[in-house]
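Quick log. Single chain, no ligands specified.
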Amino acid sequence: MQSASRQLRGQERVITANRQTSWAFANAFVAEDEALRWARDRSRESGLASVSPGTGAALRLLAATADAKAVAEIGTGTGVSGIYLLQGMRQDGVLTTVDPEPDRQQFAKQAFRAAGFAGNRARFIPGRALDVLPRLADGGYDLVFCDGDRMESLDCLAESLRLLRPGGLVCFEGVFADGRTVDSAAQPAEVLRLRELLRAVRESQELLPSLLPVGDGLLCAVRRG
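-> predicted structure:
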């Protein structure tokens, strides 16, 4: 029995190691260009966590699949996620990106320009998400990407449902919270709010959800028609 138990533990270690290697391979599968690397460096210098290459590639794929012409982004950062979204959008598409820190948006403007996007491809709005989103048009967006204050996740979900056209996508970054979302130990309020968000999306009759294991967890859902 002890020998069988040791063998199982050995198999578990191999499976875990292979899975981690596979995740690392998937994350590095799509190479990043100079503009993305520049934006990522500015993010690191600013103490921000930008989306992983795997998450960015998933966002680009989703934007392309939706043939997105209008995308709203909560959390501009220094432009990493915005570049990926713009790469997947239609060539006449416009990204509306919201961030409370105008200095970050200046970095994003430079990054978008370096990536080859014309100035009219992005609309930068400084301000808190819950102050700005109510001013955006009902049903006017193909995709809403949320990478802002986790404590505002449920409110952003409600606003996203209003903003999305039928068949549009909403995505939330960072829902694993570095593994804390599924950790049974006592967790801070922001992690509890993420659990509420996951439950709300999963149980919503308006949404068709999926949780993608890229980066720190990408929660996606399609608004039913």
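The longest helix spans residues 2-27.
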